[in-house]
Amino acid sequence: MALLDPKIWTDKIYINGWVAGGGGTRDVVSPATGEKLGSIGMASVADANKAAAEAAKAQVGWAATPPEQRAAIMRKAGELFGTYAAEITDWLVKEAGSIPPKAGLEIHVAEGECFEASSLPSHPMGSVLPSNDPHWSFMRRRPAGVVTVIAPFNFPLILSIRSIAPAIALGNAVVFKPDPRTAVGAGAAIVRIFEEAGLPAGVFQMVNGGADVGEAVVSAPDVRVVSFTGSTAAGRKVGELGAQHLKRTHLELGGNNALIILPGVDVAKAASAGAFGSWMHQGQICMTTGRHIVHESVYDEYVAALVEKANHLPVGNPATDQVALGPIIDANQTAKVQSIVDETVKQGGKLAAGGTHEGNFFKPTVLADLKPEMSAWKDEIFGPVAPIIKFSTMDEAVALANNSEYGLSVGILGDVGEAMKIADQLNTGILHINEQTVADEANIPFGGVGASGTGSRFGGAEANIEAFTEQQWLTVRPDIAPYPF
Ligand code: NAD
């Protein structure tokens, strides 16, 4: 049977199995053509609470499942992403507007996340603590319980599985709320993979929905830990709600990432890196290069090289044509990108390339000669726009890069010695020298500072164990201890 046969998931959510949701249904729409691709079930707030309660019941048995069996299921899930790569790619292209190589990258990382997670069940889960009392004293880590995972639409598979896989491997149950715009290729697909991998019923639940269902799966009494990836505005709400209900919240939020181009750089290579950083997946990535900070000695040449690329990169429907850029996710988001570009031009920014759209296809855009107070420089655009500013001194470059509420990713291109001199002064969770700002691997501790998140990390055993387990102090002595009472 096909992984994503519509008969399985049409008009359904997943609570212990495929069921109709109390929130009705919603069309799945192609962002490229507007065509209806299918229809998903939507959850109600009551469904969200039920999913969490059922997950809590299933979690007890799952946590007690031998590590070898948990590891085998994670390995199987990783293999299945490979087996069903073509089918999942097709959905990530049609539903999310991904070009095929981007979809392939998502599937490759999803496989890697499951394989990495398969090492977690047998990982050391604590330590022996010295004690002044005549007892043995240990710290042991236990699963947190039920973990809620909320994901965005842009890299929907990676940003879901990077939390789902380690949380499940470590003995938790997961309630997953995908973005409803990508709930087949990065929602139903994940449910089906774990079904086929043999995960016991109830350990993984999926409730499709919007902000109301998102808030319900944060506040549901059975949920202990929340892993949220999305905008800073929604992240603040999730953080507030989590604090009210005393939930541990891991928040991975927006970015406005700087790429510093040093004097003496190879301009052709730098422009290739800058173009990829700003336009990959239409600039809809938290790590997108949102600010190009370019030394005056190479500025004109760099802008010209970026304009040349913008004017030649093909934009269109990735399901039918070989293109470099596909569509923006929907009309609202397209209108938002257009309004930031227009406002910046009104503020005196120079539109050097692009700046317009047809349907949801936005042309790769270059905005040059910007000032730090202009909209395209200050705001996270989430569209294919390369905003550029000129600098003279290294101190200026550092000040420009740090002048942002966000702190997710920074790239520095050029002489490594010069880059090292400024690297330690940059406020950022991720720093690449001689690479642009967009990158991810399953084993690295991914995360940002400032308005990009709470400094939490996903990826690699150390960060994942910290994120999805609780510590317990455990002591043992041969006889009951004597007390003065
Ligand atoms: P969004 O915050 O609107 O939505 C993200 C998810 O949160 C969706 O599933 C949405 O339904 C849900 N949601 C929205 N409001 C909620 C609420 N009040 N309570 C609970 N859930 C809620 O984000 P978006 O605009 O769709 O996605 C793009 C944003 O995500 C950008 O800001 C981008 O930088 C950020 N992002 C961050 C990372 C990272 O790892 N730091 C990765 C990718 C995207």
Structure description:
Pfam families: Aldedh. Residues 18-473 form the Aldehyde dehydrogenase domain. The protein is an alpha/beta fold and 485 residues long. Helix content is 40%, strand content 22%. It has a seven-stranded mixed β-sheet with strand order 14-17-18-13-12-20-21, sandwiched between helices. It has a five-stranded parallel β-sheet with strand order 9-8-7-10-11, sandwiched between helices. Helix 10 (267-279) links the parallel strand 12 (257-261) and strand 13. Helix 5 packs parallel to helix 6 (156-169) and helix 8 (211-219) packs parallel to helix 9 (232-244). The radius of gyration is 24 Å and the shape is globular. The model has no long low-confidence stretch (mean pLDDT 97). It binds nicotinamide-adenine-dinucleotide. Nicotinamide-adenine-dinucleotide is lined by residues 150-154, 159, 177, 179, 210-211, 214-215, 218, 229-231, 234, 237-238, 252-255, 286, 380, 382, 408, 448, 452-453.
